[in-house]
Description:
This protein has 195 residues and is α+β, with helices and mostly antiparallel strands. The chain has five helices and eight strands, in the order E-H-E-E-E-E-H-E-E-H-E-H-H. The protein starts with a strand and ends in a 23-residue tail after the last helix.
Amino acid sequence: MGKTYERIDGRLRDFIEAQPVFFTATAPLSGDGTVNLSPKGLRGSFAVLDERTVAYLDFAGSNAETVAHLRENGRITLMWCAFSGPPNIVRVHGRGEPVFRDDSRWGELIARFPGIDHSRHGLRAIIVVTAELIRDTCGYAVPLMTYESDRPLHGSRFERETDESLDAYFHKKEHVATSIDGLPGLPLPLPPTPA
């Protein structure tokens, strides 16, 4: 049933890139820390960078658990599952890192996402993941569902924000600069968007 892959290419890459939603899972090193599982969407916000590296855009939100966990230990699992077509689940287990706006790699990385207007969503980081284990499983019990469209709410909420107002928004949120478990989260003040 399950198969392990050496790289993200061919049919596997096509499957991953076609999915409108994926999930991320991270956890702190502490055994009693909070495990975080997050859905990710918005067409164009995910990219396969090479056969073992993927990235996604980390947009504004009320928490920064993934960023905090990656800053502490780098462990992350990404999962895609087929809600239409043949059943399939793909997991990429690896090491991730948040790349912030003031990182010298920002310009090169952001160019890999031409299919989305990231300025509308309060972009705060690009999460880069290097795969250590790539597996698929059957997904026979995943329900069939129909994708209608991306929700417009995130863009309509954050497109009016400037770098300054977005920084103020993050400062008001309890778990953006510091995670639920007290780990360093998003570095504040928020670096300005590169020109």
